[in-house]
## 1
Amino acid sequence: MSVTAPLGFRAAGVAAGIKSGGSRDLALVVNDGPSRAAAGVFTANRVQAAPVLWSRQVLSGGRLRAVVLNSGGANACTGPEGFQDTHATAEKVAEVLDDSAGEVAVCSTGLIGERLPMDALLSGVETAAGQLSRDGGLAAADAIRTTDTVSKISFKRGSGYMVGGMAKGAGMLAPALATMLCVITTDAEVSAEELDTVLRAATSRTFDRLDTDGCMSTNDTVLLLASGAAEVRPDLAEFEERVTEVCADLARQLLVDAEGASKAIAIEVVGAADEDDAVKVGRAVARSNLLKCAIHGEDPNWGRVLAAVGTTDAEFEPDRLNVAINGIWICRGGAVGDDRSKVDMRPRDVTITIDLSAGPHTATVHTTDLTADYVHENSAYSS
Amino acid sequence: MSVTAPLGFRAAGVAAGIKSGGSRDLALVVNDGPSRAAAGVFTANRVQAAPVLWSRQVLSGGRLRAVVLNSGGANACTGPEGFQDTHATAEKVAEVLDDSAGEVAVCSTGLIGERLPMDALLSGVETAAGQLSRDGGLAAADAIRTTDTVSKISFKRGSGYMVGGMAKGAGMLAPALATMLCVITTDAEVSAEELDTVLRAATSRTFDRLDTDGCMSTNDTVLLLASGAAEVRPDLAEFEERVTEVCADLARQLLVDAEGASKAIAIEVVGAADEDDAVKVGRAVARSNLLKCAIHGEDPNWGRVLAAVGTTDAEFEPDRLNVAINGIWICRGGAVGDDRSKVDMRPRDVTITIDLSAGPHTATVHTTDLTADYVHENSAYSS
């Protein structure tokens, strides 16, 4: 299902020979309309890959006919030649679809600093074009994997329309955005401006609150395409809810599959003076290597939580902080609370609740533990 | 030598029974004058241990007769009772020295969130007072170790005076300050105000530029005590240089002994518009888990360097960034530079040079690689 769950979309995923090993590495998603409205959200990193620079420009027109995605190479830090490669890729897609390159987004993921094998990539585009189909969503989701162990797909039904999506991302996940590629489709009738508003709202509360290793990528891209093929003009609040659900579902799949992780940690910040404070505190805690190691060792080390909270400028008094791990309030008033031996650290899911005692606002940030496997994957694999 | 290298200081290090296992865990450093001028720099963490709150207050008077330090417990997040414990410790030192508790600094290091065993600690103070001697500096340095595998001491000779120091710290090292305790002594005649200026300048360019795991402690303390016993009024520029040398030497020892590290990484930022930009970029790169894993795997992954630089708001253009690793400029103009196979990654010391091409300013930040041993030490050891 994935991106082809909504009407009006075809997709394909093929092995173009960009990756060594012969697995799928090129995906094509085509919007057959009648609408081509689209929006995109991109990495906040100032070092941006060529495909990000290109697609950002394309999206300024608010229309997309197609998205071409490759794994096996990020085409980041590749200079003007890398940008020409992205341009040539879009032109090739335009040629096989008999359409304009100015409505073709390009996404790349893989190693930074190497040129893409363009002969393989361009002939892969031709192969993919020949295999485009209404049930190509799964193959497309498979083709964008790098160190992902499984494909990530999702779809939700609205009132008379569908929202579908696929994503990749396993390491380098951090706010604004998680390191990932994501394509979301819908057959509802929604304008480009509305898609933009909805996508920003949905990503800010899902992908933006995922931080597995604090590292921000050069290639993060989330695209939202509307075909209008269901001929339904949705209630925008409901539509935003469905898109947010698809984003949250994909974000959850990214988290569970994060490189080397053995725990999925939800950091719930409550009692914040405002939502920004809650997010700030959640992120600071999510980025504490010491805490992430402790959770890996199944040690409910609330001292490391407080040490991380204390690095922020959020509104709180140190002696009014409360911390629960898996429901046991082991820190009360900034000091020892309930018996830490009552905390069951064995489940894969760990919830850390931090009460700032400063107001009514809340936010949840998701992260993973830090493991020897993470170190191994990221010291052995050049990415 | 250590803190007893300068005239006018006695020290002792004893096993008080705070740590299980019977190793030394309590140190006492006494300034016999004639001067008692002193200054201190403390953690920027808003969650501060009781001894930090106490010693900050004591130092506002600009005078110190003694410093008592314990390992085996941080006395952080221990509430009003923890503060009373610190106060009682200072009173005990005052009693055995027949002096005022208002001129006794207290430093603690170890696990957060547990009360100290006060009976053991107070009788340890008595024992230490009985063992104070002019050659007690080594025993004192030994007593403040936690996961440190070796004692850290240093001394430098000025024109007619000495500067000596000891430090502890192996994990949780991060800017402002590295997680550590440090006591520096001198027999020069320097006022409290001058000591404060010199200490801030020295720490800002040494301990503040050490970031092994991005985690900021609740207990960091650096103290500088002057006895005036050499009866020499130093040239202040030379004195600052000597103090900075002692700090740099101790910082280097902390870095080499950092938990689980196999590489010492110097991140040299050059071509910055100002020094703040250079430090900001150095810290962002020092905090990239992905880069630290790559260096551990001896992979000269400049793409991860650029991805980290791109998260900052420092002045630079992405296509004018140059990166050298161990002297080989493998990234030029934001893209591939010299052959990466020329980089020799085998030495323990790795230098990453980042040229922002934005001005004449420079700074160097020091960090370590991220290893499975780090994960192991910090998931198995509650601290």
## 2
Amino acid sequence: MQILAGQISIPTTRCRADQLTHLHQLANRLRVACDDGVPDIIVLPELAAQEYSDDAFDCLEALDDDLGGPVVEAFTELARELGTAIAFGMARRAGSRRHISQVLVGPDGRLAGVYDKLHCAQFGASGEAAHFSPGEQLLVTEIAGWRVGVVICYDLRFPELARRLADEGVELILHPVAFTRDFSFASWHAFVTTRAMENQLYWLSLNRAGAEWGQSLFCPPLVDDDHPTLTFGTGEEWQRLTLDKAALREARRRLPLGTDRRADLDALPMWTPD
Amino acid sequence: MQILAGQISIPTTRCRADQLTHLHQLANRLRVACDDGVPDIIVLPELAAQEYSDDAFDCLEALDDDLGGPVVEAFTELARELGTAIAFGMARRAGSRRHISQVLVGPDGRLAGVYDKLHCAQFGASGEAAHFSPGEQLLVTEIAGWRVGVVICYDLRFPELARRLADEGVELILHPVAFTRDFSFASWHAFVTTRAMENQLYWLSLNRAGAEWGQSLFCPPLVDDDHPTLTFGTGEEWQRLTLDKAALREARRRLPLGTDRRADLDALPMWTPD
């Protein structure tokens, strides 16, 4: 499987016109990025369809969209034109609620999956919980013969979520993020490495570009000196990532976490003095 | 709470006499290390009472011990003499089984807890599973007013174990290890940082000294640029670590993982196309 991972620059968007200009320019950059060949999937960051800031969140009435609107339409048309799946982030309106969502469309332009962020952050530079509602569903979908799960940014901090997806047979986690340089930045990469390895799957943690963002991380299912992680810079960057089922099998053979895991853990008693 | 963490050198031990010489010399070094004041607890690595190698594992008949034997006696006498708790690793004989155990004795010399490693490793340089049986109990004990849990080396790879201890109110995890420079070494520190932060507790991951070992890690409950981890060198090293309940509370206030965690995660359905 080949991924084209776009750590993209996103301009100021405070109204629909700003946003549509961004999407139009982004589509042009995506066409260029695909000149060297069309990947199985193009992956874009959390809320890729707009600026990430409290000021932009105050304009969500103008920037959000449902699955039938112009944001999704722009990406589905592009997916069809290029003949590739696209995973992109948007503020999704659903009834009276608004979600931080990652939407996957297939190369035929059809909806391949929607995931609404389960844990909306409210700490450091993140004021999401004041503007968005947490999701109520998990997503596992199939892209180019691979089982793909999605979690978004802060979701990373909760081990049970990736574990549940791994137990559903997921081989690749797409983790669109908006990590800015607050105190939570320092531990981000350690968490990604741990999640990839403890679940023995590929993990792409994709940020937006910029001096305050950047440093996206791609982890193979076993990270060691011979299988390092790939760290992006801070500018706009397009990385082609090749995933290999044999590497997945080899990771699971070398480090037999699946066999060694204790099925009886929850039932184990506590030690007590005699 | 103050910990004295001993990343100790351990000589060749292939018979009981080797081992008792090691324990005698270690006691002398511990006395010196306590000259500057007696900590609440002295922590020593996995299998601190003996060499860690396949050759030593072939001599376990001579090196193992039950809770009434000379190994435990050496440490309980020292705990009583110094007036501090001690957590040490040993090959523990229990009936027909043998465990990789961490034993905690209180400053009165009484047994404060026993933990038998739940996951015995069999990969890379680790041939434990051929010599040891996995444990069947968890340990949470109290030391100097702190709730303390223990996990050993490879146990680190399984998120559910530390999570269960954290849910029991544990504030400090003692993680004695024997990490040598095989492929598993590269990701060790990322795992420790993640486990400390995701459970919002202190984590001491303590290795034996030596060019092929070393680099023990101590993590506060929130790791960021202002609260870095402490990494040991490779030689024998005694570190005094001060733990603070206010720092625990502050970590949990700043990053509200406990409140944000989804109690309904296991029950969430999967997305399906309309």
